[in-house]
Every structure is written in structure tokens, then in C-alpha cells.
Amino acid sequence: MAYLRWRRFTELLSLDNPALGELFMRKRHKPIVAAPVEKWDAEYQAGIYDRLNHSEQRHHHRLLAAMIADRWPNPRVLEIGAGEGVFYEALRAHRPARYVGVDFSRPAIERGELRLAPEIAIGEVKMVLGDGRTFETDETFDVVVFSECIEHLGEVEDLVAHYAPNLKPDGAVGLTMWLALKPLRLWHRLKTMGEVLDEAVINTPWGGGWLVAVVRARG
Q1: 98-103 vs 125-129, strand pairing mode
Q2: Confidence class of residue 11 from pLDDT cuts 50, 70 and 90?
Q3: Hey, which bits of the chain come out as E strands?
Q4: Whose CA is closest to 108, among 43, 61, 176, 34?
């Protein structure tokens, strides 16, 4: 317990002090590598991610949805790494005009299509099988969301540049990230690329923690 408290303390300090995070980071030179799609497929089929439907696992979703709706009423949202569309459950209360969820796991997309069937039927929601690093669409959105996946999608600068054509002129990137030192590296880099419109940290009684933010990229 003492170690967990110390780790959370250093993670919070490193939000504004990147050098401190580097100092305490273990295996700092080891790259972040995404798990293969076969692993995600097996875990979705096994129901491992059913826990993400629990209320205590969705505080970050509710906060990000509120941040988005506060600036873009009835928003148009593209979510990369959407899984089975759990984030949409939080966004639904804000009456989004359009939601497109993209994931490279077929079982996740199939479950999302069942979960969100009524919204898909009326054209409000679309679930798409695709690689978040290369997905392309002609649609434009108010926000492109990366919820707990940005660390698996390559260089953050390239990722934001790839989706820039899909953002409206006042559009932004929405982010949730597990509060840990290595992923926070990407957050520090993303902050230098634009204007932070909203930023918050959520801590839970069971020891979980997320960074939640909305950033408008320059240019």
C-alpha cells in the first residue's frame, strides 16, 4: 500500500514536472509496444473487458463526455480504439449528432454493434473495423477521442497529424490515459502541440487513476 501511494504521488508530481517522472521511471528506455490483435480478440471473446461496464470503471468516460459536450453541444465524435463502444454510453446523455467508433478487434466491433444497435439503425452511430494508426474517412468531427489507447498507436505527433483533416476548424483531441509514468511521456508531448482546453485527474478508492483532457492542436 505504501508503494502504491508513493507511486501515485510521483505520477501526480510528474504531470507538471516531466524530468521528475523520468527520474523515477523504471525501464525508461523500454518502448511501449501494443499487444497483437489476437490477444485483444481473445480477451474480448473471454469477457475480460466486461468489467469496463461497471460504474467505478467509467468515471473518466463521464468526465470526458461532459468536457466535450460543454464546448460542442450535440457533438460529432470519432473514437479511435473504441472497443465495443463503452465510451458512447457516457456520451449518449449529451445527445451526440454523430459517433463513429473504430477498433481493430473484430469481436469488439461485433459486440459494439449489438450494444448500440438502436443508434446504428437510425444512423447516429457507426462501428468500424479498422487500424487506428491508418484509418481514413471523409467525415469531419468536433473531437477525435483516444481513450486509454494513444500509447499503442505510435508517435503522437504523427497520429495527431493523421487525424487533423478530420477535425473541424475549432475541433480538438479528447484523451483519457491511465495515470502511469511512461504513458505520461506522450501527454507531455501532446501538450506542446496545442492548447489545453481542459485537464483533470480522477482517482478512485480502489487505486485507479486517469488523466482526462481536451487539447486543440495548433494549425
Answers
A1: parallel
A2: low
A3: 76-80, 98-103, 125-129, 141-147, 167-178, 194-203, 209-217
A4: 43
